[in-house]
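Hi everyone, sorry if this is the wrong subforum. Our group has a chain we'd like a structural model of before ordering constructs, and none of us has done structure prediction before. Sequence below.
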Amino acid sequence: MRFQQSTFQGGGLSPASLRKRSAEFVPVLSEAGLARALALDGDGRYDALEQIAVKATENFPHTFARVEDAFRKAGEISDRYSR
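Answer:
Right subforum, don't worry. Here is the predicted structure as tokens:
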């Protein structure tokens, strides 16, 4: 006897998640997404993490209450994505 398991039911993609993955969907970044984009790209210049953290705190106070919070997130993103 041989059994095969399917992950079709286990994927758990919600209707909202499926909608956001459709070819026609036009994404609009949330505040958290905009903050992450700022950390990745700054304003198109090469900025030090401290400068990025200050800008993120000024631009996204609901996401980053303190510069330290923004600096920690910018450091995580830098560690993951920078070369």
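For your construct planning: Helices lie at 15-20, 31-41, 49-59, 67-81. The chain has a mean pLDDT of 81.
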